[in-house]
Amino acid sequence: MNMWNKLYNEALKVQNGRTVSPFINAGGVAAALLTKAGNIYVGVCIDTASTLGMCAERNAIANMITNGESKIDKVVAVMPDGKIGAPCGACREYMMQLDKDSGEIEILLNLETEETVKLKELLPNWWGTYRFE
Known about the structure:
The structure is a single chain. Helices cover 27% and strands 31% of the residues. It is of the alpha+beta class. Strands 1, 2, 3, 4, 5 and 6 form a 6-stranded mixed β-sheet that branches. A hairpin with a 4-residue loop joins strand 2 and strand 3 (40-48). The radius of gyration is 14 Å and the shape is globular.
């Protein structure tokens, strides 16, 4: 099994869309990321009535940071219908701020064709590059 399929399957394991309370739904979207150190971290979206929720990608990143890592190699986001989706703008920005090399993060766009894009292609001319120099 290739790494994209492994990441996809890891995300599916935690997806499980559910109602947590009358105010919170979770797991509609799931994400998995592979770090430069070779570890996989997962997360699910947490949608709240007060918009204080968290995207699945940022949840996976929080899990990664909690475990002492900060360098991402690959990211997969799985939508409620099981298809792949690109990270939202907030998640793109969050990833870009992690490391000077974050622009090289590979993001899966299509599982069947294994089409990917680098984060820097989704955020050309990123505003914060100079701060890493």
